[in-house]
Amino acid sequence: MSFPHLLEPLDLGFTQLKNRVLMGSMHTGLEEEKGGFEKLAAFYKERALGGVGLIVTGGISPNLRGRLTPHACQLSFPWQVGKHRIVTQAVHEAGGKICMQILHAGRYGYHPFSQAPSKIKSPITPFTPSAMSSRQVRGTIKDYASSAALAKRAGYDGVEVMGSEGYLINQFISSRTNTRTDEWGGSFEKRAQFPIEIVNAIRAKVGKDFIIIFRLSMLDLVDNGSTWDEVVQLAKWLEHAGVSIINTGIGWHEARVPTIATSVPRGAFAWVTQKLKQSVAVPLIATNRINTPEIGEQIIASGQADMVSMARPFLADPEFVNKAAANTPELINTCIGCNQACLDHTFSLKRATCLVNPRACYETEINFLPTSKKKRIAVMGAGPAGMAFSVYAAMRGHEVVLFEAKSEVGGQFNLARKIPGKEEFNETIRYFLNQIKLHKIDLRLNTRLDAKVLETEKFDEIVIASGVVPRELSLPGFDSPKVVDYQQVLTGQALVGGKVALIGAGGIGFDMAHYLCESESSTLNPDKWLKQWGIDKQYQHAGGLTQPEVENTDHRQVYLLQRKTSKMGQGLGKTTGWIHRLVLKQHDVKMKMGVSYEKFDDAGLHIRVGEQVEVLAVDNVILCAGQESNRTLVDEMKASGIPVHLIGGVDVAAELDAKRAIRQGAELAMRL
């Protein structure tokens, strides 16, 4: 399949973009690291070389009070221009274009100096902002313009004004967060004056030949958000003010609706960009969960948008556009929307990277250079760790033989992809399989690596990536065929009844509960998914919200149990855990904490919670109580006298951690 619409140039009059792909804004954490701008330059340079039409940086504050965190990056003074030039020169040398995003956090600022239109605390930060005076509002507008002028001096091709996701500009626009009674509050015209004056001030400072993107919140997904008429009116005013492009913003950060997690259908929000296209002539960018060239092509070819924005997909694969242009989309390392190494890292103040591509943001530190000593390496296990190591080692020039006892590669990913909303794991398996073929790795399915093999073949190194097995519990009645583990259920070896108790409420327990309640994945049915989360596609309500409609397709009663007394799902992802908890609440899953397990018999599962004894009349018990390293044959391998290395779950069998497994495989491949 070719992608003519995706790869078509976009003429902005004073400049031309070589294709319709925008690398959306992502804060990497490099912005604040010592020597981080040199690393950031390498990061963006790879993406420019990879063919992307236009890059937008992570958010840079226009002043001190606008910072997201106390030490976050800002561009307010001439002496700060130099480090930005390192980035712009690297991108331009690679033939790319880059805009700097200007972002004022407003009440989302994670520090006591935050300011907002009104003194209203955000539900996701601990600090209450001070309300800006009219003079401070005017000063902030000037700060935006000054920051844009400095960005131009630094060599940026333009700026993106962050006017969505609930940050400062969004806070001025919405009556939810703007209760002012002066010239900056009250009517929509007054509330919208702030973004309009920012754009006017920037355009006056930078002139006509400079890209200004405005990221407009087209769908707030919060109560008392903007109405559709207000979105359209603001877009028209922005067009008149001289913006070059309008980017789509979806959802405030405090919204209780998922917008970028893997469970969100691909291209789920392109309809709202299309809805605006009939009202303005300025080019529009569609965003959120666009992760393949096929989806991008479809959105542009159908007239839903003029460009598509992809952020995390460029963490996963810097060569995304080049591979699409070469008509080899099967070689793209697809973003699975997991958030585990990118957003979860960002919100924990760590450097962002990527679960499926550990080189992301480590381009100067993780490289697979040609080996000076070619080795023949045996790898046991073709799960995420084993596949990753095999591919990276083969890239370096080693001869790799990959042994897998089962009939397919993928390991735990083959189970994960069966969970509703986690179908994207198919893409990672597809990617590694194609890399295995491309690098001529000797893949032997249905074959165990054992002493017999080592007697007949010579290897210089052995890498064991045999993964994990479910942990068993030795309790009265747990030898019943009605007590099964999660792997048996997901592989179809065990069928379960209408009432089920899950022991263990980590990631596996949550996934199993979802699987049992929603056998027909709403992720694969966008209209059903929009209804499930109460998103009003007709946009008859402010903020785009309506009453959710949830279907429990299997009508099961599920109990999710844990020994700990702590909050259920506390160990889930920082940016996705709330979604998993809400999904189970939608399906009326009963959650119990501080549970002791007594026995299982014909009456059901006998448990104790504190002093209270209870019998759950369930048909089945499913064990999700963790896992143990699959160390079968490890001692045998070590006895061979050949150097042995353990990676992935066989090394550490904590909560399933593909991020660590793939990274371990990459780091070992660099060393051998």
Automatic annotation (TrEMBL):
> Which SUPFAM superfamilies would you find in this protein's record?
FAD/NAD(P)-binding domain, FMN-linked oxidoreductases, Nucleotide-binding domain
Q: Which keywords appear in this protein's UniProt record, sorted alphabetically?
A: Flavoprotein, FMN, Iron, Iron-sulfur, Metal-binding, Oxidoreductase
Q: Is Oxidoreductase tagged as a keyword?
A: yes
Q: Which stretches make up the NADH:flavin oxidoreductase/NADH oxidase N-terminal domain?
A: 6-328
CDD domains, A to Z? DCR_FMN (cd02930)
In terms of InterPro entries, this protein maps to: Aldolase_TIM (IPR013785), FAD/NAD-bd_sf (IPR036188), FAD/NAD-binding_dom (IPR023753), NADH:flavin_oxidoreductase (IPR051793), OxRdtase_FMN_N (IPR001155)
Among the GO molecular function terms of this UniProt record, one is: FMN binding
Task: Tell me where the signal peptide lies.
Answer: none
| Protein origin, superkingdom | Bacteria
The FAD/NAD(P)-binding domain covers which part of the protein? 376-654
| Family affiliation | In the N-terminal section; belongs to the NADH:flavin oxidoreductase/NADH oxidase family.
UniProt protein name: NADP-dependent 24-dienoyl-CoA reductase FadH
